[in-house]
Structures are given as structure tokens and as C-alpha cells.
Amino acid sequence: MGFQRQKSKPVVMSGAIAALVLSSCGIAKAPDIAFANEITVFRSPTCGCCGLWIEHMEAAGFRVKDEVTEDMEAIKQQYGVPAHLAACHTTVVAGYVIEGHIPAADIQRLLTEQPDVIGIAVPGMPIGSPGMESGDYVEPYTVFSFDEAGNTDAFAEHS
Ligand SMILES: [Cu+2]
């Protein structure tokens, strides 16, 4: 029923296949890294801070697929974002769901550690999170992880 996180294996497999195809053409790039850095962002057309967060992610080296939709509610349901953790944009990267204004460094840590969770979320839109800057002020906020069993846990703290 809910969104099932893909294990990393299919990603690695497709990377290996892509590497085979590429090397047979005489191009030896590192496709695994490129795939892990590709994110899909779902956002509403009127969300300005979503665009600023996308710029933050691009500056950190992620490649962004920008998906504009009028029905963010449906996207959040589809990807299993708990209602109490909902923010503005919803992002998918390497089988994980990223909800809201999460710093790129936390996403890089998630991709490195590969915890058994659906994803991570910053509920609401705290001032001072990436894309929500207002001078130097940072409203303290927590990045939560959430899993299939409905558990949430603190993943990172920012202030
Ligand atoms: Cu926002």
C-alpha cells in the first residue's frame, strides 16, 4: 500500500549495466556517483522557497529533476510522508524520500549510511534552513527520519 523503499541493489545493478554499456562505447565514467546525485523534486508551481532549496542542492553537486504538480497531497501520500512531518516540496533520491528544507549535507550522510528508513523530513519551513534563509538567523530545527513501522527518530539537529 505505502511507498516501498527500493533497496540499493537495483541501483547498483543498473549502474553496473550502464558501466558495461558505457565502457563498450569506450567511455569510462563513474555512473554510480552520477545516479546517486540525481534527485527528483516535486513542488507546487507557486512555491518560491522550493526553488531556492533546489538551488542549494545544485550548488552542493546534485542534479535536479524538477517536477511541478498542483497536487502535492497526492505525492506525499504516494511516498509515505507522515502528515505531521509534511513540508512544502517532496524529493526522491536513490529510493529515499526527502521531505522539506533539508540541508544537502544531511542527504549526503543519509546516502552514505543507508539506514533502513523510508526517508528524512523537516516539517514545516523553519527560518534559516536551506532555501528559507533570513539573514543569519536560524530557528533551531530537527531533521527526523521515518520508517515503515511508523517510527520517527531525530536524524540531525540544526541551530
Ligand atoms: Cu518551503
What is this structure's SSE topology?
Blueprint: H1 8-24, H2 31-36, E1 38-43, H3 48-59, E2 63-68, H4 72-78, E3 90-93, E4 96-99, H5 104-113, E5 119-121, E6 141-146, E7 152-158
Parallel strand pairs: 1-2, 4-5
Antiparallel strand pairs: 1-3, 3-4, 5-6, 6-7
The chain binds copper (II) ion.
Mean pLDDT reading: 85
Cα shape:
globular
- Strand order in the largest sheet: 2-1-3-4-5-6-7
The run of helices and strands is: HHEHEHEEHEEE
The description of the largest β-sheet is: 7 strands, mixed
Instruction: Work out the radius of gyration.
Output: 16 Å
Distance between the termini: 36 Å
Strand-pairing-aware structural class: alpha/beta
The percent range for strand residues is 15-25%
| Number of separate domains | 1
Query: How many β strands by DSSP?
Result: 7
Q: How many helices in DSSP terms?
A: 5
Hetero compounds: copper (II) ion
Provide the low-confidence segments as ranges.
Answer: 7-26
Percent helix range: 25-40%
Molecular structure report:
With 159 residues, the chain is of the alpha/beta class. Mean pLDDT is 85; it is low at 7-26. The chain has helices at residues 8-24, 31-36, 48-59, 72-78, 104-113, and strands spanning 38-43, 63-68, 90-93, 96-99, 119-121, 141-146, 152-158. The radius of gyration is 16 Å and the shape is globular. It has a seven-stranded mixed beta sheet with strand order 2-1-3-4-5-6-7, with helices on both faces. It binds copper (II) ion. Residues 49-50, 88, 101, 125 line the site of copper (II) ion (CU).
